[in-house]
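Hi support team,

I submitted a single chain yesterday and got back a structure, but I'm not sure I'm reading the token output correctly. Could someone confirm the output below corresponds to the sequence I sent? I've pasted both exactly as they appear in my results page.

Thanks,
R.
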Amino acid sequence: MGLDEKDICRIAETAYLNQENTWRYRAIVHYCYKKHEHMQTYVYPEDIYHALREDVHFAEYSFEQLEQDLAQLVTWNNLKPHQETGRARSIMDFKRRRFRYQCTPYTVEIERMVEKLRQVGEEFGGSLETTQFDRILQALTVLVEQSEPLAAAELNQTWLDLQHYFQTLIRNASDYLAHLKSAKVEERMQTNAFIIYKDKITQYLQNFVLGLQRASVKIEKLLKESRPEAVERLLGRLADYQLERSLPGEQRERSAYIEDFRESYVVMREWFLGTEYRAGELQALYAETLETIRRITKFAQRLAEQHQTTRSRKADYLYLAGWFARLTEKRDADALSAALFGAPGARHFYVQERASDRMDACIEDEAPTEIELKPHVSTYRERTRQTAIRDQREQKAALLAQHLAQQARHDALLDALVVDGVIDLAALPVISTEVRKTLLGWITRCMQQRTGEIQTETGRHVRLLWDRTSAARICLKSEDGDFLLPAMKLAVTAAKAG
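Hi R., thanks for writing in. Yes, this is the structure output for that exact sequence:
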């Protein structure tokens, strides 16, 4: 980033805003600025003096002090003196060098800024208007697609309009979202009165999002499809127009004008489209607006819940009491009470896992569960007996051999179902409960994988074969019941030996 000397040097014209006698300097400059705004370019010291003496703060202010202050403001380049020779009535008047004063351009802009700062206040303002997007789209369409037949003055005005709409959009949107995030607005959102305005604010933000989506797509399309050579011709014509209307001595190089216009165009393009390193600010504005909608909705929901929990339920209970009063049977009252308040004195029972997964099985068919109850007192301790350490290797070996034999039988049953490397669930005979659980477990695990393939604990490679577009159904018959499922097959590859 190249810095000009003016970018880093001290601005002398702002010195009057922060001095020991600032109250006097600001009063003088403000009076001259007001006269400038009313097209009275030159101001006489006598007019300034009489205007200041009308204020109580300048009751003891002398004309000599005014002349000193005017000289100091001239030194800071806030005022430009012009010698008044036509009003001299004597040689002494001419020698006294009577002056009239004019505000410099810097001072006029500083005073405008100060007036604007006084209107800003302590909170952000701004707005979210979709019309700015429409205006940007209209101006950009003219510049990109219809600029050739336009006159230079009309082309320049369209460019100025585009920059104005773009800057207004950014400034207003940024200020409005910052306003919604300010501490005072956060406090207002937590009051009950906010619920009334929640829908209006949310609708306002939603309309902005819709307008943003509608117009931004067209704007992005224009910027993407604009040809670099056409953009350069446009910037060149704008630079030529600036050269023609510049006053002698104030002209810059044509390349300098083109560079300024190009920088403004690139800033706007990157704001909408982003760069290869980051997304555009348009996406950030879109995301921040949606987040604001969610935050407002959350505040409103929380207030509504608080209001719901704190409101009186007296009317509801009286209405329910009327229901009970109209009943004549206790059984009906018990049923109504259970429907309104739930079953009283509900008990929870612990049971072991069911031996069957049949949904139509009756509870009478289930085996009872025996549970050993222990005293619920802090002093209870289980009795322990000292026992000798015994060698359990033979029992462990027997249990392991039993488990391996059972696993081998289970694997043999599974291998018997494989025909040409595929288990066709529709063609299976009645299978055991263990085999049925294994097959359904494989299907579940395959469906959870993106590839539809798994590897089992025994090393088998299983892949699910299923046409999801088919509506065909099959019945898997098992010892504990029939299971309806889509027409599925399992491609099984045996584990490699060694």
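A quick pointer for reading it: The two ends are 68 Å apart (CA to CA). Let us know if anything else looks off.

Best,
Support desk
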